[in-house]
Write a structure and sequence with these properties.
Blueprint (H helix, E strand, L loop, with lengths): L1 H16 L3 H26 L3 H6 L7 H10 L2
Helix pairs in contact: 2-4
Protein name: DUF1127 domain-containing protein
Pfam families: YjiS-like
InterPro entries: YjiS-like
């Protein structure tokens, strides 16, 4: 039992570093920044005319997918 605790203890410390209050704050800041990129991308592309979107090779139905890729890379 003692050997198991010695082997797993460093892993627990590493996991704990990203799960504390600071880890939570960092994740919230990242999520907020990604949402801002998403909203800005949707807003800017939505303001373009169909002609301008066509010049870019885009269709209006692609806006949310493009914004998702810009924010989250999916």
């Amino acid at each position: 039992m003692a050997a198991t605790n010695i082997l797993t203890q460093p892993a627990r410390k590493e996991r704990a570093a990203g799960t504390g209050i600071m880890g939570l704050i960092v994740r919230l800041q990242e999520a907020r920044a990604r949402r801002a990129v998403y909203r800005q991308t949707v807003s800017e592309l939505s303001n373009l005319s169909n002609r301008e979107l066509d010049d870019l090779g885009l269709h209006r139905s692609m806006i949310t997918r493009i914004a998702t890729e810009a924010a989250w890379g999916k």
